[in-house]
Amino acid sequence: MQATLTVLGSGTSMGVPTIGCDCAVCHSSDPRDRRTRPSVMITYNGHHVLIDTTPDFREQALREKITRVDAVLYTHTHADHILGIDDLRPLSFAHKPGRLPLYATPHAADFLRDMFRYIFEADYKFGGLPQVELKSIEGPIDLFGARFEPVTIIHGETPILGFRFGSTAYLTDHSAVPPESLDRLRDLDILFLDALRYKPHPTHSTVDQSLRIVEQVKPKRAFFTHICHDLPHEATNATLPPNVRLAFDGMKLEFEI
Fold it and tell me: What does pTM read for this prediction?
């Protein structure tokens, strides 16, 4: 089945331009250097599945003219991946039948219930709440004829999730990928990897670290995301292998799901 992946956001937690920064990338005229917080949307057979809802989700949804969402998968509960949950409201009102399903690990679901208590305790009497429901990720998730397989990655010291769906995998916010997870990333058409910058970081992959993963698992195409303002788009691409590129906001890729 043919599917489209849309990069909603390709930036790091502070986004690019970064507030208060005077660097060349933050003042770049190249629209690919404008990076909102990291998220993707997978579209197939008339359905739309999000991975994460960032603080920029409203802007991303308006830019991409999103009028429907059928499910949301969460990688983890850091602010740059969850704070757009309230902007699901108009899309959740239109969701039929029932409430819009949000998938997260049991630990992440508990965190979301606690942080967004006003949504999930259902005792707010004035209406206007997102019509959503949390579902636990305990293994592969079958959604509308496609299978989304959770892939464990390490973010600093914390195990979080990436996802493989068909011939594509999306991994963001990782400083390490366990060997058993690498084995699940073979025979891919498209692989998304965290590549924050060149300088080492305690919780994120660097360009060189992610290039080594590409060499190990050999996807046909690789795209780096969660990019900070250290990496100018065009100049960085010029240094990368032909099958590896920086992602950018609004990028669309076709693949088999």
Answer: 0.96
